[in-house]
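F.,

This is the one I mentioned.
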């Protein structure tokens, strides 16, 4: 599995298929591409002559893409299909409501999150507790209804689907829970736990359910004699294997792993991670892997997304982010990863300041209250998501050329905002004084 797709110095030209065709020219190479019904598919031609096609998650096209060079010879096309795309997703939980039920204040658990995930790959979602990782996973699953944004899965917009129409996607998207001890019903045997969803969704005929469940158990490292046993008879690692078998029994395409190894011993963690990787290779699974353990994330993921207070701080390929973390928060997170070498001195970055409340986040960059490189512009202007290098995005003013070249102007703007706030506070204080005198 490729861990990194670092850009080299090879020139690349991009195009989008329109009306079923497109033409690309790069250097001495000219390629004509045809794909009936493939409007919206992105094409890339390198100066070496290689052709790549990326099918977005909002595009239902799954047909053939034919490419030919100018001399009529066929060109081989590398096709990458995005199975999941999240655009500006939001999930707010109301804290206080008015008498008429209108929300006055809310907790912004997921705030304007966007990312794409290619079929057969893994994205790791990392961040501190309470940053919105689990809420993001549950919102993608539509266990929570979103408050904004879009979710595209396998060519379809599932954002606002009702429960009845969402039913056919329930088998395609599955969840592995964090706690294997509480996520299994204690009064059901292992065989019945795995077979329940198979029976409900009619994955196989009734007479084949038992043999099918035994096959799934074998794939997940569970012995045949476990079929009639109950969850309390198993260790934590075995219970997590049961949870994995239950998720895979309905033949999903996308599996959201919500900290699947955090409750397990280190040796058992390695077994479960290796199992997940093996199953991904054999079944072509796609994972959204939520975790605190950055060592595990580095081992299993292709991409990493760093979250803080509901926002995305940084996104990129795993090796790119580990080799060159950009955001100050990412650097602080990665400085906490232990190195198994007694001669290496750790340069731990200790974050100062208080952790803001997600119900009342600070203006501007949400991380500025704890950032050692905070500037005045960070205190009132939210950073944009900037592509620092190919497929490596960071939301930080330090990498925004427009902001860094106009710092003096933003400093003046900040001073004006402070003066305006001070004036408003003084006016409020003046209005209160006459009332206080009357009361006396």
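My design for it:
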């Amino acid at each position: 599995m490729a861990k990194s797709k670092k850009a080299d110095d090879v020139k690349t030209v991009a195009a989008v298929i329109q009306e079923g065709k497109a033409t690309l020219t790069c250097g001495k190479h000219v390629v004509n591409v045809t794909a009936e019904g493939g409007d919206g598919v992105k094409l890339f031609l390198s100066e070496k002559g290689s052709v790549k096609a990326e099918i977005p998650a909002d595009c239902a096209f799954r047909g053939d893409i034919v490419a030919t060079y100018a001399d009529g010879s066929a060109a081989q096309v590398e096709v990458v299909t995005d199975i999941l795309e999240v655009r500006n997703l939001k999930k707010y939980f109301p804290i206080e409501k008015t008498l008429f039920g209108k929300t006055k204040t809310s907790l912004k658990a997921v705030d304007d999150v966007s990312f794409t995930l290619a079929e057969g790959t893994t994205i790791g979602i990392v961040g501190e507790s309470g940053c919105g990782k689990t809420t993001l996973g549950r919102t993608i699953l539509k266990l929570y209804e979103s408050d904004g944004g879009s979710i595209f899965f396998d060519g379809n917009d599932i954002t606002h689907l009702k429960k009845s129409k969402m039913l056919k996607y329930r088998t395609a998207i599955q969840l592995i829970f964090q706690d294997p001890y509480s996520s299994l019903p204690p009064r059901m045997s292992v065989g019945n736990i795995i077979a329940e969803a198979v029976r409900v969704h009619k994955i196989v005929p009734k007479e084949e359910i038992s043999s099918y469940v035994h096959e799934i158990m074998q794939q997940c490292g569970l012995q045949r004699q476990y079929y009639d046993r109950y969850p309390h008879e198993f260790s934590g690692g075995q219970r997590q294997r049961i949870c994995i078998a239950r998720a895979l029994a309905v033949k999903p395409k996308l599996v959201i792993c919500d900290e699947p190894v955090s409750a397990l011993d280190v040796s058992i963690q390695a077994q479960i991670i290796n199992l997940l990787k093996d199953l991904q290779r054999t079944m072509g699974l796609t994972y959204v892997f939520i975790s605190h353990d950055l060592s595990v994330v580095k081992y299993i993921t292709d991409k990493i997304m760093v979250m803080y207070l509901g926002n995305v701080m940084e996104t990129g390929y795993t090796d790119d982010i580990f080799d060159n973390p950009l955001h100050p928060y990412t650097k602080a997170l990665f400085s906490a990863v232990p190195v198994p070498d007694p001669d290496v001195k750790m340069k731990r970055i200790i974050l100062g300041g208080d952790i803001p409340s997600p119900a009342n986040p600070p203006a501007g960059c949400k991380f500025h209250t704890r950032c050692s490189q905070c500037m005045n512009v960070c205190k009132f202007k939210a950073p944009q998501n900037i592509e620092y290098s190919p497929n490596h995005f960071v939301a930080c003013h330090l990498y925004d050329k427009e902001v860094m070249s106009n710092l003096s102007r933003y400093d003046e703007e900040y001073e004006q905002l402070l003066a305006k706030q001070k004036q408003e506070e003084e006016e409020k204080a003046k209005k209160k004084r006459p009332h206080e005198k009357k009361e006396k």
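Confidence is low (pLDDT under 50) at residues 1-8.

Talk soon.
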